[in-house]
Known about the structure:
It contains one helix and six strands; from the N terminus they run βαβββββ. The longest helix has 5 residues, at about 10-15. It has one helix at about 10-15, and strands at about 5, 20-25, 30-35, 40-45, 45-50, 55-60. Strand 2 and strand 3 form a beta hairpin. About 15% of the residues are buried. The protein is mainly beta.
Amino acid sequence: MTGPMVWDEQSLWRLPAGTHFREIGRLGREFVVDDHRAGVLWLGSTPCPVAVVELPVEVVTRAV
């Protein structure tokens, strides 16, 4: 693990648009925070709500 960790859903909501993060647990999926809709994440080309993320996650890249 190298990036900052996020431990709760409220912190996920506050990540800037375009931020990439990865689940630390067994799934290990990588998501991107939507540029236009709060609380929407992208897993590849599939939109997902924050509630589907297995916490904690590691921030891979932060949006500028």
